[in-house]
Amino acid sequence: MDTHSEKEIKEKILSKITEIEEEILVLKEHTKPQALDSAIGRVSRMEFINNRSINETQLKKNETKLKGLRNWLGKLGLSDFGKCLRCGNEININRLLFIPESNNCIHCVH
Zinc fingers (dksA C4-type) at which residues (predicted)? Predict the structure, then answer.
């Protein structure tokens, strides 16, 4: 991989890290427990519980993605950056940016 490509990839990864960190802050705010003295109806409380569960799931996914992005950022410039752990071929950069926690190319996933 040439230096221009590495620089472009680094910028994309850093941008994605910033985006996910901002989403995590919002999701953490939405997953905080609600005080029992809050004056909302039973249906609203159930909706809050449902939404909180969905937000917690998304929060875990984002934390996993963030970990994957930081992993790839740490490998940038090394010989194993973007290489499939199974076959050793290069993983498509779009796949890495979309599913940063993936360590395998599309062919080895199936």
Answer: 84-108
